């Protein structure tokens, strides 16, 4: 009996590998049973063995090197070592030999496509020169990284901003719910529409008219359709639920006890509607009727009732569970707009003491510490997810805005720069993080959803984080936009704009679009370009009065 085995060229690698493989050949002697002796196989990918069968972030034409104890039969290599793509198609390879055919170097003939999974298999068709065969097939997973070529032709920065706005606009226009006109929660939500996301959608429609994506008449008709739906949808002391059935207007439970009024979602919806009311300022009957309808919906929200007898606002109320959730709306987070709209209400207003004690917690929302070289006036360490600086400021202009607690221009710019600086520093060593690829906020992640931030970093970048920060970090946001579009566009640029998120560690690209993430992209890019939505909402007489009552000062008030 004669047998030969594959083994480590350098025995120091013996503990690093976990593959058992052997080449076996037998003399034609019926009285002699074959002896299978397994030993460890050494291979490397671009000169490295990581002790697994999976290699990620490979670029170009990686070289996979196999070492054998005796020469390989070259005639068997073509069928014995196969490289295949995700669809199972065989990829042409280049093969070279060393050390008298004891070493085989295999590499793809062409560069790997970006972020694609390939499988390199070594099967029992591979024979040694003496006729030994492979008894343990091996499959090595090779995952490519970024292909740095541009995926789309270069256009001017202004053209790119318009393109992103127009593509993102389609989420709210083309994909708007057919019966209600409202925004679906996400691209797989069916009839489930979202109140807050629909507020973003209304602002997006105003932007769409401004940018000539649609006509004023068509935009007016869609917003009126939404308002007509909202007139008959379930309300809970004037507030809407987070989720609504787009056909029936019935509340859909967001969680076990969250099946009634959601004051924060209602405030995001009302901010969008009031913005549209200010935009449609014509004397024609249709625009006059829309303005009157929106004013009535806003005035019917019982903001002060949601105090629940305290000097603070409460997020939820349920007709079945009453105040059981008992979640106070306290700063610093995305809910400043809720207090502003409550204080601005002519019918159910709140007093300044509710703002000071409930929202600002008598100054306890202040921070003042420095993170990554930037002092943060308000909020949690490192600023938290970036949506905290987006949602309230889709319509509220932070530039020059101050009160007893902060300068909000300083706050939002600091928050964005801390998030950016963190990603550039990349202390967690995530693949892809850079000055061109940054932005942590709430988004989908592999297998779930989370609010990503410097203190909850899962390696997931959400395009909305950097792109909705355009008014705060225009240079850094433009660099991110160009990277997302030109370098990753083949993976993340889809029918409704950029997908929700991606991870370049173990490459993953969401297939989802979320209303609350798509909306801030188109809206905040427009505020960066023209201040359109800021100028509209800040022009509302109720907003001016309410913000002054809370102690705000701004050139826009």
Structure in words:
Helix 3 (195-210) packs parallel to helix 5 (263-279) and helix 4 packs parallel to helix 6 (285-299). A hairpin with a 2-residue loop joins strand 24 (493-494) and strand 25. Helix content is 32%, strand content 15%. With 557 residues, the chain is an alpha+beta fold. The protein is elongated, with a radius of gyration of 30 Å. The strands form ten sheets. A four-stranded antiparallel β-sheet has the order 5-7-10-9, with no helix packed on it. A four-stranded mixed β-sheet has the order 6-13-11-8.
The share of residues in extended strands comes to 15-25%
| Class per helix and strand makeup | alpha+beta
Distance between the termini: 94 Å
| Regions with little confidence, pLDDT below 50 for 5+ residues | 1-40
Discrete helix count: 15
> Which overall shape is indicated by the principal axes computed on the Cα atoms?
elongated
Largest sheet: 4 strands, antiparallel
